[in-house]
Structures are given as C-alpha cells and as structure tokens.
Amino acid sequence: MEPGRKYIGRTQIMKVFITRRIPQEGMKILSQAGVCKVSLWDSDETVPRAELLKGVAGAHGLLCLLSDKIDTEVLDAAGPNLKVISTLSVGFDHMAMDEIKKRGVRVGYTPDVLTDATAELTVALLLATARRLPEGVVEVKNGGWSTWKPLWLCGYGLSGSTVGVIGLGRIGMAIARRLKPFGVKRLLYSGRTAKSYAAEVEGEYVPLDTLVSESDFVVVSCALTPETQGLCNKDFFIKMKNTAVFINTSRGAVVNQEDLYQALSSGQIACAGLDVTTPEPLPTDHPLLTLNNCVVLPHIGSATYSTRGIMAELSANNLLAGLQGTDMPSELKF
C-alpha cells in the first residue's frame, strides 16, 4: 500500500492540501467526490510558510493560490506522492514550472472563466483613472467641491482616442471589445504575432514602440515571461505621450515601479491605474500611493462572486482529474 493513501472498500483515499479557504462551490465538489481527504488552511489569509511545508507533506494533491510560492522546497516537502497541483488562478508564475515538469506533476489552472470579470475591471479602472473619479470622491468628502470651474478635475476621454493593448490574448481581446463602443478611433496591439481575430475590433498589429508612442491609452494585458518582466521601464514611459494613460492588470513585475513613479511625478505621462503591483500587498508607505494621478487597486480583477465560485469549481475538478489520472478540464501543458 502506498504511504499516505488510505482505502475505503476499493476506493483509494488520497491526501489533499488546500492552502486557503476557497468558495464553497469547490469544497462541495471535493467533499462529495469520496476519493480524497482534505486538509485545509482554514483562513482568508496566506498560509504561513511553515504551515505550507507541514500541510503539503505526503500530499497527493495540492490546491494553491497565486500568492503561494510553490518552489523546490515545497515540492521536496510534498515528496514523491505528489501527482497534481491545481492553482486557483490563470497565472502560474508563482510555481517552479521546470522543477514541477521534471517531477512529472500535472498542473491545472483556471483560464477563460475570469476573462470577462478581469476585462470589466480593466475598463472600470481605466475610466476611473482617466476621469479622476477617486480624486472627485475625495473632494466631495473633504469639502473641496465648491463652485463649478471649467478645468477642475478634467481628465481624458475615450471618444476619438487611440488605445494600445499589449498582449491581445483572451483578456486583451475582451478588453478591446468593451472599449470599442466608447468611440475609440484606433485600436493598436502588440505581441509575439498578429492575431486573425483582431479584425473583429479592427485591431492594428504594430511594433511595441509604435503602440507606446501613438496611444492615448496603453493597456497592459500580457503574461509575465522573461521577455515581459520589467518591460514597462524608463525608456518605455519616455516614449509615451505626456497626456497618455497607463493601465496594468496583468502582473506587477511587468512594470518597473520606480520608473513609473518618476514618469508620473515628473509629468512624463498623465496618470496610471494598477490592479497588480510588486509586492502584493503594496506597502502603505510606497511612493506610488502618494500620487493623486495613480490609482492602485488590491488585485481584484476576478473579484465577482460568480467568477470566484466558477474558479473554485474548476480548480476542484482539475484536482480530482489529476488524482484519478483522467483528463483535466483545464490542464497547463508544458
């Protein structure tokens, strides 16, 4: 009998560790499956490192979140029983993929299901940033709202503008679809290759430098890779218009935040909206948080009740498929 595995009748009961309290939709699937014994870090807060290493010991399956660093130490702590890692995220840069592949561990993730929610949040963040909504709310609350003034709290509109999307994948395309009805005149995009489906939004495939220099709104929606890490740096921001709006809902590490601060504080660019930062959470004394022209959200791109529930369901089903050696609904191929 394999260590760590129990048997009830002919059913093999395998150990699963979940690194956080997840929506009940996922827990219900696992509890009713009858093939695993679940151990859970029963909190909304990140599992402490020591508890993660302890919890994963001897596990056959691991269900984790984007904030959990799944590295060689964790894999070693899990040991040879580990068959599957299911992450409740579309991103996977928190996992040591080369080491996971080497050990033959399967990986499930949650693409597609959070596309619409993230695209909606991106548009909301863009509008809030460009039209200075957070500043307006503060002025109403602190008594700064007096008489009507022609240029008070003026921002930037989408009508007749040029929007550049860096990374026209699932989420990038969903963002573009939502922005076009605002009267966007040109939709530029850049990436590794031109996309045939870009015709739906009249997207123009252009070099990155062209996109950066000609766009009124620059929206980052690419994956974090060695090529995109630190992509948005001093040289990048210098090429932008000084009236341009910068939005990032991809990964924090795509942006050099020190260079972004300089660009915003010097007037090199008009304003920025971020739903992702490095680190997360961003320290409350971070320089970016001192700027009125920078809107920072706490990584809530997929934060709708329905989306998080679907993500939990998919994560649970990915995990069960990996444990049972069947096809996953969404398996990361590498």
TrEMBL record:
GO cellular component: cytosol
MF-aspect GO terms: glyoxylate reductase (NADPH) activity; hydroxypyruvate reductase (NADH) activity; NAD binding
Protein name: Glyoxylate reductase/hydroxypyruvate reductase
Record gene name: GRHPR
UniProt KW keywords: Oxidoreductase
Ranges for domain D-isomer specific 2-hydroxyacid dehydrogenase catalytic: 16-331
Keyword Ribonucleoprotein listed: no
InterPro entries (UniProt xref): D-isomer_2-hydroxyacid_DH (IPR050223), D-isomer_2_OHA_DH_cat_dom (IPR006139), D-isomer_DH_CS (IPR029753), D-isomer_DH_NAD-bd (IPR006140), NAD(P)-bd_dom_sf (IPR036291)
Highest rank taxon of the organism: Eukaryota
Gene3D superfamilies with a match to the protein in the record: NAD(P)-binding Rossmann-like Domain
Recorded family membership: Belongs to the D-isomer specific 2-hydroxyacid dehydrogenase family.
Domain D-isomer specific 2-hydroxyacid dehydrogenase NAD-binding: 123-301
